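Task card 7
Instruction: Convert sequence to structure tokens.
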Amino acid sequence: MLVKIEHIFNLVVGFVGKITSVLLLLMICNVFYDVIMRYFFRNSSVGMQEMEWHLFSIIILFGVSVALKDEGHVRVDFLYEKYSVRTKAMINILGTVFFLLPLALLIASGSFEFVMDSYRINEISEDPGGLTHRWIIKAMIPFSFLFLIFSAIGYLVQNINIYRGAKPGGREEDAALEEAGRGEGKRSVPGGVK
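Output:
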């Protein structure tokens, strides 16, 4: 059951990862257009420049959740890699419950008022020709941290599955590796000589 739940979480987070990949391509096109216009035609758009950092912000904010799913986040690998698969899963579970989820909840709940203030005053860019509706990009902060909470729950389920041995990398794989290590000495060499 938990393996199926984990699969659903991975599908949703993977889909958002594909969207951020498309946004990355759009940002590259935006930067390319801006550079060409600025250096070859001596023309530049403040709105296009602001769109660069808006897209970049969305990519980073939602990319964190994708990095968590793909184990691409930063950790102290020289310590972590020495542990067994089950110990790593327990470290991931404890770290998610006691550090990641509380911080994500704090930022998500604390940023709603920030967005609402921007919406109430109809905040726009201070630069002439800049983008309007600044609250839209600010709204990505609570949404991305709510999505990080969603991704963290999926990561928690994944590590519970690993710890329980219900998924490759868990107890069953550790036992298979131990068995393979014991069996190496019993193999015969061609010709019947050990």
